[in-house]
């Protein structure tokens, strides 16, 4: 199987295409990532990806930035905070581990993507990410008095 075939998203990770009213991914980009810039662990990985993105193939969109409006993208803040989201140039939405596959492929690690789809590895990555996504606010110190929330 070719790397191009391996990079094709799987059905559960692909969401509906964007309509004509949503902002378009910039030309020349392979993927747009919607990340929580207030999450220290998330920010650290995004900073690494920015550094590795010498060919500027990734569009980085901070959902914690002042002025970010999820409705413009047809999403809610709760949806975007629940797990990482990405958009492909076609307007298709991807979520979870598939976003990371596309990000790392875009910055030069396409050769590693097939490994992340191997039986067992795929399942472990999906479970690990889902655990992190559900516990992210707690794990990054953003829960106080038993309540986890974001300031918006």
What key phrases describe this protein's structure?
6 helices, disordered N terminus, 7 strands, five-stranded mixed β-sheet, two-stranded antiparallel sheet, 152 residues, alpha+beta, 16% strand
Q: What's the arrangement of secondary structure elements?
A:
Layout: H1 3-6, E1 14-17, E2 31-35, H2 40-52, E3 58-62, H3 77-82, E4 85-87, E5 92-95, H4 97-109, H5 113-116, H6 121-139, E6 143-144, E7 147-148
Parallel strand pairs: 2-3
Antiparallel strand pairs: 1-5, 2-4, 4-5, 6-7
Molecular structure report:
This protein has a 5-stranded mixed beta sheet, with helices on one face. The protein has a two-stranded antiparallel sheet with strand order 6-7. Helices cover 39% and strands 16% of the residues. Mean pLDDT is 81; it is low at 1-21. The protein has 152 residues and is α+β, with helices and mostly antiparallel strands.
Average pLDDT number: 81
Number of H/I helices: 6
Write down how many β-strands occur, each being a DSSP E stretch of 2 or more residues: 7
Query: What is the ordering of alpha helices and beta strands?
Result: HEEHEHEEHHHEE
- Distance between the ends: 45 Å
Q: State the helical fraction.
A: 25-40%
Strand residues, percent: 15-25%
Q: What characterizes the major β-sheet?
A: 5 strands, mixed
- What structural class results from the helix and strand content? alpha+beta
**Shape field:** globular
Low-pLDDT runs = 1-21
Estimated radius of gyration: 15 Å
- Order of strands side by side in the largest beta sheet? 1-5-4-2-3
Brief summary:
This protein has helices at residues 3-6, 40-52, 77-82, 97-109, 113-116, 121-139; strands spanning 14-17, 31-35, 58-62, 85-87, 92-95, 143-144, 147-148. It has 152 residues and is of the alpha+beta class.
């Amino acid at each position: 199987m070719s790397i191009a075939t391996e990079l094709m998203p799987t059905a559960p990770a692909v969401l509906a295409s964007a309509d004509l009213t949503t902002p378009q991914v910039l030309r020349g980009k392979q993927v747009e990532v919607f990340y929580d810039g207030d999450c220290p662990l998330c920010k650290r990985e995004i900073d690494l990806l920015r550094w590795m993105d010498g060919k500027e193939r990734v569009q980085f969109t901070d959902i914690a930035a002042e002025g970010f409006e999820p409705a413009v993208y047809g999403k809610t803040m709760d949806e975007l905070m629940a797990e990482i989201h990405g958009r492909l140039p076609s307007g298709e939405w991807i979520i979870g581990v598939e976003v990371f596959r596309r990000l790392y492929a875009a910055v030069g690690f396409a050769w590693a993507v097939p490994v992340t789809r191997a039986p067992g590895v795929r399942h472990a990555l999906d479970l690990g990410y889902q655990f992190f996504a559900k516990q992210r606010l707690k794990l990054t110190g953003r829960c106080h008095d038993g309540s986890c929330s974001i300031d918006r």
